[in-house]
Amino acid sequence: MEKISVFLDDYRKAPDGYVLAETIDECMELLRNFDIEHLSLDHDLLNRTRNGLMLVQKMIKENLFAKRITIHSANSVGGKAMYHCLKQAQQDLIMSPAIIVSLRPLPLNFFPSKVLQHYLEIR
């Protein structure tokens, strides 16, 4: 299975080397069909009811995960809810404890070089 990294966001552009998914349906399709090295997730998407938390819940239900997951949402409440949901799945042994889960909010309009380093180091 081909390995890729995925960036879920409907506003920001994906960093170099990442496949952009703009909806949770696109992201789920990629999770089902590729070996995902790194999955970076936003909470707020155009469809308010189909957001990043809903994606995380679907990932847990279908047992579809990446080797590394970063929550990059600038929405602190939504991002923390996604993070805690994934960490709970690890505690419940639904998701492997070996999967690295990070909470690293990104600004909406630019990527500071220090933050981009996180994406460059994990490839």
List the topology elements:
Blueprint: E1 3-8, E2 19-21, H1 24-33, E3 35-41, H2 52-62, E4 68-71, H3 76-91, E5 100-103, H4 113-121
Parallel strand pairs: 1-2, 1-3, 3-4, 4-5
Helix pairs in contact: 1-2, 2-3
Write up what this structure looks like.
This protein is globular. It has helices spanning 24-33, 52-62, 76-91, 113-121, and strands at 3-8, 19-21, 35-41, 68-71, 100-103. By secondary structure, it is an alpha/beta fold. It has a 5-stranded parallel β-sheet with strand order 2-1-3-4-5, covered by helices on one side. Helices cover 37% and strands 20% of the residues. Helix 1 (24-33) runs parallel beside helix 2 (52-62) and helix 2 (52-62) packs parallel to helix 3 (76-91). The protein has one domain (3-121): Response regulator (Rossmann fold, 3-Layer(aba) Sandwich). The mean pLDDT is 90. It has 4 helices and 5 strands.
